[in-house]
Amino acid sequence: MTEDSGADIIARAQLLLAAGEPSAASHVLDRHLRAHPDDARAMIELAHVLVVQGDPGAAERITRDALADHDAAPWARAMLSQIIALDPTRAEESLQWSRAAVAALPTAPGLHVVLAARLGRLGRTEDALREIATATLLAPDDLSVRVALHVQSARALLPAPGAAAEAAAHARAALQLDPSDDTAAGLLAAAQAVASRPVTTLEGPHRPGGTA
Fold first, then answer.
1. Confidence of residue 125 (pLDDT cuts 50, 70, 90)
2. What global pTM score does this model have?
3. Which of 19, 125, 130, 195 has the smallest C-beta neighbourhood within 10 Å, fewest atoms?
4. 3-state class of 87 per DSSP?
């Protein structure tokens, strides 16, 4: 009976995490890493589990260890970007890690998606959409890229006068592709709130079908 590969272990941990069992996922990865302490991709997956378990500090430490692996380093940088982004005071640091990830592996669409998310959070929606455009060219049929395209489009449209309905449509499209996307859900709620507000003109507030 052969030992499971690192890829098998990571896949098993991802299934456990998706099933709502982060403790079991952590156990599987911990056991694997005791035998294979240099498996950087397993470290990165464990960091994800640790974030879910509410321990971003431990997640950041193990992800920094994964930076020593040249092949996994771009993904470690992207993971660091996402972990650091949990602290609003470190937004610029998070952005720099994400930029470094893309610079190291510009052909990976997922890294452009992570960078787009960081840019979007900082209100730089045009830059975010450019990253999504690059990701779309690299992987036009990738589900995560399509979700990100709708999310960033919704974020870009939301502040525009009269664009709330279009923003909501993009947010709904993202949720149809990935019902678990919290950012899309938040954008949909915001767009619906904007759309329901009275329209204010020089003559006063109006509602559709109403009078001044």
1. confident
2. 0.81
3. 19
4. coil
